[in-house]
Every structure is written in structure tokens, then in C-alpha cells.
């Protein structure tokens, strides 16, 4: 009876104060839209109409979370370059209004805890600090409010996803996992279907053409499917996981990202080594099948298709230049970029420039200077935006969740699938950390939502562990 009551209360909020939520959402939307000045009046009207409709549809945390992740994937909400997308901003405004209305609903009328874990206070502190410093620079005229707000939205998965996930019950989480598995596969298939466009772009436009724009999704998918395929309770789905791994390998190839190639190959052996002994033989079997299929099909395709033959030879030659800074334009350009961003960091070492902070960058490849929001380094990116204070705040949360994930890999009170997912989360954090050597995750929302989801699952598993420990304690 208790379970059914919990489920029904989650699916329809017991005290749904519709007009109060609409009022809060409308006020937040109005402030955000009016504060940006550049937004036409029809967009203001559209947002105000959309808020009450969205609140009715998305009043369940599961639907809101699925819609939020869907928008991240579909709209590609990234703040990697200078341009500002109105689609990005409007989608962000709507979701900010809806989420503030949900904060209002949960805190005022249901008296629920908004921040679900102490480590999230450090994340919230970082967001407030970087936004506040950025707002000062907006007032001073150094940057625009649109850029500031957009970078806050880019960071938002680390706040919004744990908040929404906290309201889910077990039934919702199973639905969410099915949605995520389907989403990953759909994205990878879409990447494969765009292979012709990607190949043409990567050959004729240096290295900017990619069918797969998400540089870590394929690696994440490979880790997830490989881990799940080795769990005893999931072995009946093993052939589907193998298909998922094969599609993900194709997606990884289409990123044309050397860092992704190296890190995936580097981490898979460690993933096998850390697999429990009872699951290791199954993991090795799956890996052997995958490698055999890749070698056979890849070998045939290499000799049958001349275009693929040329691409592989070109990619391999390009990969070999990575060890020679003078021979590789991309790597050398990043060294030049890091020198310039470091100069800006030294000008504001404590506070940073805030969200939307910029630095003068000499783009060595094309030979001119630009004002850039983005740097190819996670640590330098954090220091640029938030200084030493921000680095300490976000590092505390990041390291804290990493340690929490390691602790969740071993408890006997968690099931095999739960511990496997915790291990998967630890590898996702390691992957993002290593990727941050050559890109800035802080500016990639399609990367941060993986991190936010992993943190949310860690919090969920920790709560389950506490509850189960209390049940068996005398």
C-alpha cells in the first residue's frame, strides 16, 4: 500500500497550486526576457503563454527531466563559440521559469528538501559566484547578458538534473533508463546516417566536420553497454548490448577526435580489470566478440571501399602527428591559446571573469586575434570564469562525488546492477577529467548532463544504502 501511495503521489502532485506556479514562472520569465532587451515582444508573449501549458504537461519530475535532457540533445545547447542562439536562450528561459515554479511548489507547499546532497551546495556556490562575477562585468559593459545567461544555462545540468532526479521513484528511474538507452542508440544511428556529410567536411574543411558532435557520448555508451552486458541479470540482453557497442564504435570513429580514441582504448582495459571476478569472464567474452566483428568487417571494408581506405590512412597519419607539436597545427594552436588565456587569468586570479568571461586569443592557424569565450582546457576554463575561489568550490564537489562513487562500487547491500552503474559513473568522471586536458567541459552542456546524471544516481544509491543499512541494524 505504501508503494502505491508513493507512486500515485509522485505521478500527480498532491497539492498542485497551478496558478501560484504560473505566477512564479511568469515573473521569472518576464525578468529574464525583459532583462535581455534584444528579445522581440512576440517572444515575451510566447514565453508567457508557454509557461502555464508547460507546467501542466511537465508537473511530474520524470517528464520534466526527460524534456530537459531532450532539449539539451536536440537543440545542442552549447556555448562553445561567441554566437548566441535565440532557440537556446528561449528554451533556457522556459525551463528556468518551469523549474523555479517547481522550486516554489516543493519548498513552499510541500516543504521538501531542494538540495538533495551536501556536495551540491558547493556546486550551487560555484554557480552563484560565477554568475555574480559575470553580472558585475555585464554592468561594466565587458560582456552581454545574453552570453552570461547562456553560459549559466550550459552549467545548469549540474544543478537541475540532481534536483529533478530527487523527486523520482524507482518506477520513474526504470522508465528514465529505458529512455536514455534508446536516446543513446538513436543518436549513434543518426551519426552513422550523417557519415557522408561528415567525411566530406573533415577532408575539405580541415578537421571541423563531425557527424557525431558529442565527443564523449560514444565512449560513454561503450562503457555502459560493456558493463551491463557482463552483469548476470542482464545477460539475456547481451546481444543487444553488443549491437549497441558496435554502433557506438562507429559513432566514436565519426567524432574524428584523437583524444576520444586514445582515452577509450586506454580505459577499456582498466574497466575489465575492475570488473568483479564473477562478471569478468562475461565481459572478456563480449569484448572478444566485439573486437572480432570490428576486425573482420573493418578489414573487408578497408579493401572494398577506396574512400574508407583513404580516410583510415589519412586519420592514422594525422593521429601520428599528435606526438610532434611542430608538425600538428591543432596541438600547437592550443599551446598558443593557453599562453593567452593564462595572461587573462593572472589579471583576475582570485575572482576570474565570471560566466561569459572572455580573453584575447591569437588564433595561430588563421593568423588573427579574437575575443574568445572558450579555451581547450578544463582547469584554465574554470580559472578564467571563476578564479581560484571557483576552482576550489567546484573541485570540492567534483572530488567529493568521485570518492562517493568509488565507495558505492563495493557495498554488499547494493545489487550487482546498482554497483555496476556506480562503477560506470566512476569511469564517466575519469573520462571527463581526462578529456578536460584538451577541452573545457564547463562550456559543453552535452557533456555536463552526463556528469549531472551520474551525480544524481550516486545520491540515489547512497540513500538506498542508508535505508537498507537501517533495516538490518538491530
Write a brief caption for the model.
This protein is an all-alpha fold and 474 residues long. It has helices at residues 2-11, 18-34, 41-57, 61-75, 86-109, 119-139, 145-155, 157-165, 170-193, 195-204, 217-230, 238-253, 258-273, 277-304, 306-320, 329-347, 378-407, 416-435, 445-472; strands at residues 359-363, 368-372. It is globular, with a radius of gyration of 23 Å.
Beta-strand residue percentage: under 5%
Q: Tell me the count of domains.
A: 2
Counted beta strands: 2
| Secondary structure: helix percent | over 70%
Shape: globular
Word description of this protein:
This protein has 474 residues and is mostly helical. It folds into 2 domains: 14-179 and 378-472, no CATH class; 194-323, no CATH class. Helices cover 73% and strands 2% of the residues. It contains 19 helices and 2 strands. It has helices spanning 2-11, 18-34, 41-57, 61-75, 86-109, 119-139, 145-155, 157-165, 170-193, 195-204, 217-230, 238-253, 258-273, 277-304, 306-320, 329-347, 378-407, 416-435, 445-472, and strands spanning 359-363, 368-372. It has a two-stranded antiparallel sheet with strand order 1-2. A hairpin with a 4-residue loop joins strand 1 (359-363) and strand 2 (368-372). Helix 2 runs antiparallel to helix 5, helix 6 (119-139) runs antiparallel to helix 17 (378-407) and helix 18 (416-435) packs antiparallel against helix 19. The two termini are 25 Å apart.
Amino acid at each position: 500500500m505504501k508503494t502505491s501511495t508513493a507512486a500515485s503521489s509522485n505521478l500527480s502532485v498532491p497539492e498542485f497550486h497551478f496558478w501560484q506556479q504560473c505566477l512564479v514562472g511568469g515573473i521569472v520569465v518576464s525578468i529574464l526576457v525583459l532583462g535581455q532587451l534584444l528579445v522581440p515582444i512576440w517572444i515575451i508573449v510566447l514565453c508567457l503563454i508557454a509557461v502555464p501549458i508547460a507546467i501542466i504537461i511537465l508537473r511530474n519530475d520524470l517528464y520534466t527531466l526527460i524534456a530537459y535532457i531532450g532539449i539539451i540533445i536536440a537543440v545542442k545547447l552549447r556555448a562553445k563559440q561567441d554566437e548566441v542562439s535565440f532557440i537556446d536562450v528561449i528554451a533556457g528561459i522556459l525551463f528556468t521559469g518551469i523549474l523555479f515554479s517547481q522550486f516554489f511548489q516543493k519548498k513552499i507547499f510541500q516543504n521538501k528538501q531542494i538540495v538533495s546532497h551536501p556536495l551540491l551546495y558547493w556546486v550551487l556556490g560555484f554557480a552563484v559566484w560565477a554568475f555574480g562575477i559575470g553580472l558585475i562585468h555585464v554592468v561594466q559593459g565587458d560582456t552581454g547578458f545574453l552570453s552570461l545567461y547562456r553560459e549559466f544555462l550550459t552549467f545548469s545540468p549540474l544543478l537541475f538534473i540532481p534536483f529533478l532526479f530527487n523527486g523520482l521513484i524507482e518506477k520513474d528511474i526504470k522508465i528514465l533508463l529505458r529512455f536514455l538507452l534508446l536516446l543513446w542508440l538513436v543518436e549513434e544511428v543518426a551519426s552513422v546516417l550523417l557519415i557522408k556529410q561528415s567525411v566530406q567536411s573533415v577532408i575539405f574543411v580541415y578537421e571541423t566536420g563531425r557527424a557525431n558532435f558529442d565527443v564523449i557520448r560514444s565512449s560513454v555508451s561503450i562503457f555502459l553497454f560493456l558493463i551491463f552486458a557482463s552483469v548476470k541479470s542482464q545477460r539475456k540482453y547481451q546481444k543487444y548490448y553488443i549491437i549497441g557497442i558496435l554502433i557506438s564504435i562507429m559513432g566514436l570513429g565519426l567524432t574524428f577526435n584523437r583524444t576520444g580514441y586514445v582515452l577509450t582504448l586506454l580505459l577499456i582495459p582498466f574497466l575489465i580489470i575492475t570488473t568483479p571476478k564473477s562478471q569478468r569472464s562475461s565481459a572478456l567474452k563480449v569484448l572478444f566478440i566485439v573486437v572480432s566483428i570490428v576486425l573482420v568487417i573493418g578489414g573487408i571494408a578497408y579493401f572494398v571501399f577506396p574512400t574508407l581506405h583513404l580516410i583510415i590512412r589519412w586519420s592514422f597519419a594525422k593521429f601520428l602527428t599528435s606526438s610532434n607539436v611542430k608538425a600538428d597545427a591543432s596541438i600547437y594552436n592550443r599551446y598558443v591559446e593557453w599562453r593567452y588565456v593564462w595572461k587573462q587569468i593572472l589579471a583576475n586570479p582570485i575572482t576570474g571573469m565570471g560566466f561569459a568571461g572572455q580573453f584575447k586569443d591569437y588564433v595561430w592557424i588563421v593568423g588573427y586575434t579574437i575575443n574568445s569565450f572558450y579555451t581547450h582546457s578544463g582547469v584554465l576554463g574554470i580559472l578564467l570564469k571563476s578564479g581560484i575561489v571557483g576552482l576550489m568550490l567546484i573541485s570540492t564537489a567534483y572530488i567529493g562525488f568521485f570518492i562517493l562513487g568509488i565507495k558505492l562500487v563495493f557495498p554488499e547491500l547494493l545489487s550487482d546492477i546498482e554497483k555496476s552503474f556506480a562503477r560506470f559513473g566512476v569511469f564517466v568522471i575519469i573520462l571527463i577529467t581526462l578529456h578536460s586536458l584538451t577541452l573545457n567541459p564547463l562550456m559543453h552542456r552535452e557533456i555536463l548532463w552526463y556528469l549531472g546524471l551520474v551525480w544524481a544516481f550516486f545520491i540515489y544509491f547512497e540513500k538506498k544504502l542508508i535505508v537498507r543499512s537501517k533495516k538490518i541494524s538491530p
